Amino acid sequence: MDAHERLVAELREHALVVGRVTLSSGAEAEYYVDAKRATLRPAGFAALGELVAAEARRLGATAVGGLTMGADPVACAALAGGADVKAFFVRKETKSHGLQRRVEGPLLDDSDRCLVVEDVVTSGGSTVQAIEALQAEGREIVGVVSVLDRLAGGGERIVAAAGGAPYIPLATIDDVYPDRPDRG
């Protein structure tokens, strides 16, 4: 079983919750994917690390991160997977004390090539927030990786915000829940 198959199996077993839920976008759904329940277990984390590190190398990224909390395990998995990158986390708002930073972690510089990561994409809102925060600091976005895309249009919004940089979902809801009631 390769890393993609292991990740999908972990998402199916540990992250998929069937039942009515309200998503962060406010929309209601008949299922939920809590990717952290799969990616913060040894097998899920190892598979994720292998896949994200490979994408970071392929895209020539020197830094990996995104909006905290969804991006935190993904960025750390890239490091654990052997990617030679800096990991960073983007706060929703600039910190009002201490160093008053919005992007936390090792300092990013003008030569850094950022791979933005996210756990689950529905509308793409959280990912776009991270992209905009990085762009406001003059950072180059070389790509975006999500653990899972719910195939609800967020990918197109992300590509537009990232200036056409590639968007790579490691898995989609079709992989994890192919027999879902809303599949059309």
Overview of the molecule:
- By secondary structure, the protein is α/β, with parallel strands linked by helices.
- It has one domain: Rossmann fold (3-Layer(aba) Sandwich), CATH 3.40.50.
- The protein has seven helices and eight strands; from the N terminus they run H-E-E-H-H-E-H-E-E-E-H-E-H-E-H.
- It has helices spanning 3-15, 36-39, 42-59, 72-80, 125-136, 154-161, 173-176, and strands at 16-22, 28-33, 63-67, 86-90, 103-104, 113-121, 140-149, 167-172.
- The strands form two sheets. The protein has a six-stranded mixed sheet with strand order 5-4-3-6-7-8, with helices on both faces. It has a two-stranded antiparallel sheet with strand order 1-2.
- The longest helix has 18 residues, at 42-59.
- The relative contact order is 0.17.
- The mean pLDDT is 94.
The coarse overall form would be globular
CATH class: Alpha Beta
Q: What proportion of the residues is helical, as a percent range?
A: 25-40%
* Uncertain segments: none
Rounded radius of gyration (Å): 16 Å
Structural class: alpha/beta
Order of helices and strands: HEEHHEHEEEHEHEH
Per DSSP, what share of the residues sits in E-state strands of 2 or more residues? 25-35%
Count of the separate structural domains: 1
Going across the biggest sheet, name each strand in turn.
5-4-3-6-7-8
Major sheet: 6 strands, mixed
Count of helical segments?
7
For the record, give the distance between the C-alpha atoms at the N and C termini, rounded to a whole number. 29 Å
Q: Mean of residue pLDDT?
A: 94
What's the CATH topology name?
Rossmann fold
